[in-house]
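Field log, afternoon session.

UNIT: design team B
ACTIVITY: writing a sequence onto a fixed backbone
BACKBONE:
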């Protein structure tokens, strides 16, 4: 071992002494971060050497590596790199004085704070090296700058002063940090424990890290490589590494690189299936967040909006601080901008896939559409972009291979159609049976079919697309194309296939009688413009949510009251026409009213609502009795 000569003593800057004092007494549990800090410093030193070698061909930048040499017997851990090393002046400057702005504030805060976890922020403030005193009684830094021949030995017990001496024999290029571990921290001289720590925090360090000649981080940092040099197999391997899903292929990946306004590399993967949809609960994974290849957070869930939470991958940026708390990161300007850029890139990608390969987009949407659509309510800035990415089933089953987009709908609709129609129900078959659908079917108007209440929530949130209001087919707001035309004076004139003039005599009386019979159970009883075959249906008054949505709310929201509905009657249905005939004689009023009540019950059942069962049973038995009497002539 090289002995040293001419020891020179230095006093630490007062703030550093204070910091060292705090660290030596720190109760902070996660002492592993020291290894991460020192490996990160070593990796930086290797980066710097590689950089210097670019302009100086005398520098040999081959075989750069980091070695951890634990010695259990001596209770010593050496972390060695063959990077730039430090000159004497650099030693004094870099590990004796505090150069970074913010470090002093950090130390002050650490001093005042009762929160022992604040130590975890140490790397952010350019004082990570000093965390070595959390582990050690004494620290030696044996270093030789690539610009010098001999090197220097720095040494301190962390008690206010350090010494610098010249070694007797020249040192290797680079730096050795020799940690003389505290007695109870022998675990850091244990190779197995060190390998575990390195795999946890430093797998992605872009230089080989070795322990006992074992290469710990043999996963190349493919995200910092140019896209053109990364093979599909490498992308696949990295995906498996990230997700622990051996053999599973992602649906797609995005490899992103930017240099300004901030620098980052990222690979994002979209899994091939949505575990949430498969009932595994909400996805709790995030992105690996690295700063210069050093892992800062394992599962960062704030780099992407919630509605992209299914993506897996890595984001690596030199512009992000290492070791910051989640809150501090979220407040970081670069972090927030990065989130915007990542979101934009993902949406760009989805946009172009949707445009270029509808089948691939369809596959993606069937898996992840239920998560993506949440963005309509969450991300105001991207609402319009997200609206274009939504897909729905449609009554026009041939449209866009069964996944209709709002833009496609608008292209297909008649020019004078000013609304986008949707229908809701538990399944497509039920929706198609809904009497409210009749007019759309008869007139060939496309209706989006929503079988998941969240879709209605999303569309309600969106309200309009491309200047077309989005309305439920059971809404009283419905405007059908060609329903009204303007005359020369610009006033609207009624011009419908079946006009009021065609209504049977007595229809107004029937409406009045049934209105009386139902009282305040309904908002109104009126002539239907939408039914062509069925006798009646229920619609929701202007502005109210669809029946399906109200039912969902009723089940989930205590005290939720369904809004009163409008009963619509179809004057051309034969049953209604017969009631009109009967209504001419007021002796039939009571019968017409009872029929009205039953029509209301029927309409409720058709809409999936529950009428008053015992009243209905009594009424139906009454009708049966009448029929049974009629049959007395054909008696037994
Ligand atoms: P930071 O790394 O955030 O700057 P540190 O306290 O960890 O803060 O390190 C202080 C400085 O010491 C570094 O900026 C670097 O100049 C120098 N340094 C630390 N470790 C090494 C090393 N292994 N090789 C060369 N220089 C180093």
């Amino acid at each position: 071992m090289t002995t040293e000569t001419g020891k020179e003593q230095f006093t630490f800057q007062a703030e550093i002494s204070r910091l060292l004092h705090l660290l030596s007494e720190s109760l902070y549990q996660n002492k592993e971060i020291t290894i991460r800090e020192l490996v990160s410093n070593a990796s930086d030193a290797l980066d710097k050497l590689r950089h210097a070698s670019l302009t100086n061909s005398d520098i040999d930048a081959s075989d750069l590596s980091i070695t951890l040499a634990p010695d259990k017997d001596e209770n010593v851990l050496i972390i060695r790199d063959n990077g730039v090393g430090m000159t004497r002046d650099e030693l004094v400057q870099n590990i004796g004085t505090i150069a970074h702005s913010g470090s002093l504030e950090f130390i002050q805060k650490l001093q005042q704070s009762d929160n022992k976890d604040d130590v975890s922020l140490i790397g952010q403030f350019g004082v990570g090296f000093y965390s070595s005193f959390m582990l050690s009684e004494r620290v030696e830094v044996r270093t030789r700058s690539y610009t010098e021949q001999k090197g220097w030995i720095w040494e301190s017990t962390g008690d206010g002063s350090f010494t610098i001496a010249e070694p007797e024999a020249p040192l290797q290029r680079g730096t050795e940090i020799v940690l003389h571990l505290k007695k109870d921290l022998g675990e850091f001289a244990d190779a197995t424990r060190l390998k575990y720590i390195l795999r946890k925090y430093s797998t992605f360090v872009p230089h080989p890290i070795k322990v006992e000649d074992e290469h710990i981080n043999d996963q190349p940092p493919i995200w910092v490589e140019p896209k053109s040099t990364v093979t599909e197999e490498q992308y696949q391997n990295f995906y498996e590494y990230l997700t622990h899903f051996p053999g599973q292929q992602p649906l797609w990946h995005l490899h992103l690189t930017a240099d300004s306004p901030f620098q980052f590399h990222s690979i994002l993967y979209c899994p091939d299936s949505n575990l949430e949809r498969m009932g595994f609960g909400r996805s709790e994974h995030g992105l690996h967040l690295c700063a210069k290849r050093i892992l800062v957070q394992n599962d960062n869930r704030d780099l992407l909006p919630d509605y992209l939470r299914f993506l897996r991958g890595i984001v690596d940026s030199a512009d992000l601080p290492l070791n910051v708390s989640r809150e501090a990161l979220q407040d970081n300007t670069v972090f927030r901008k990065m989130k915007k850029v990542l979101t934009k890139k993902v949406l760009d990608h989805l946009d172009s896939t949707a445009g270029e390969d509808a089948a691939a987009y369809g596959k993606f949407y069937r898996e992840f559409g239920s998560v993506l659509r949440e963005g309509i309510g969450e991300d105001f800035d991207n609402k319009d972009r997200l609206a274009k990415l939504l897909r729905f089933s449609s009554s026009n089953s041939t449209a866009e291979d069964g996944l209709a987009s709002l833009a496609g709908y608008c292209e297909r609709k008649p020019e004078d159609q000013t609304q986008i129609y949707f229908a809701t129900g538990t399944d497509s078959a039920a929706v198609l049976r809904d009497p409210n659908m009749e007019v759309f079917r008869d007139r060939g108007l496309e209706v989006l079919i929503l079988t998941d209440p969240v879709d209605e929530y999303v569309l309600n949130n969106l309200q309009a697309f491309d200047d077309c209001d989005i309305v439920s087919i059971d809404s009283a707001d419905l405007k059908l194309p060609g329903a009204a035309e303007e005359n020369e004076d610009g006033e609207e004139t009624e011009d419908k296939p079946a006009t009021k003039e065609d209504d049977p005599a007595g229809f107004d009386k029937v409406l009045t009688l049934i209105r009386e019979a139902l009282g305040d159970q309904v908002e109104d009883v009126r002539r239907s413009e939408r039914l062509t075959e069925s006798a009646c249906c229920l619609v929701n008054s202007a502005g109210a949510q669809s029946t399906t949505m109200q039912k969902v709310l009723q089940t989930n929201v205590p005290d939720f009251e369904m809004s009163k509905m409008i009963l619509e009657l179809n004057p051309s249905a034969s049953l209604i026409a017969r009631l009109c005939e009967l209504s001419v004689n007021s002796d039939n009023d009571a019968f017409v009213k009872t029929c009205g009540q039953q029509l209301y019950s029927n309409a409720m059942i058709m809409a999936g609502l529950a009428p008053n069962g015992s009243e209905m049973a009594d009424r139906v038995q009454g009708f049966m009795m009448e029929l049974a009497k009629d049959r007395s002539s054909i008696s037994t």
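LOG NOTE: The mean pLDDT is 87.
NEXT ACTIVITY: expression trials, pending approval
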